[in-house]
Amino acid sequence: MAYEGLATHFKNNFSLMHHHKWGLSDIESMMPWERQIYIEMLTQFLKEQEQKMKDLENEQRAQLQSMIRKKM
Q1: Were 8 and a residue from 4, 19, 22, 23 both cysteine, which residue would form a disulfide, CB within 3.0 to 4.6 Å?
Q2: pLDDT at residue number 63
Q3: What percent of the chain has pLDDT over 70?
Q4: CA distance 39 to 14
Q5: 66: exposed, middle or buried (C-beta count within 10 Å: 0-12, 13-18, 19+)?
Q6: Please, which residues have CB within 8 angstroms of residue 38's CB and are 6 or more apart in sequence?
Q7: Taking Cα atoms as reference points, which of 65, 8, 64, 67 lies closest to residue 35?
């Protein structure tokens, strides 16, 4: 918890437990640096997944526009 405020600590715990199904005892037993590494890795993973979704949406949008142009 040395790297984050108390509110952020509880929000991160909630996210790890609720969205990612980690146990509170597993989270609380981590060393602070270990916890920080996992949170950073998870944040990076989620950013990559978000970018993949945006790329897919853009690709689908471009395909749809191409299909519309062909019909005209």
Answers
A1: 4
A2: 93
A3: 96
A4: 12
A5: exposed
A6: 30
A7: 8
Digit-coded pLDDT (tens) for 27-50: 999 998 999 999 999 899 999 999
Query: Is pLDDT of 2 > 80?
Result: no
| Residue (of 31, 28, 29) closest to 14 by Cα position | 28
Q: Are 4 and 35 in contact (CB under 8 A)?
A: no
Nearest to 38 by CA among 51, 48, 26, 50: 26
| Distance in angstroms (rounded) separating the CA atoms of residues 15 and 22 | 9
Angle at which helix 32-71 crosses helix 6-18, to 10 degrees, equals 60
Half-sphere exposure of 1 (CA within 13 A, CB side): 11
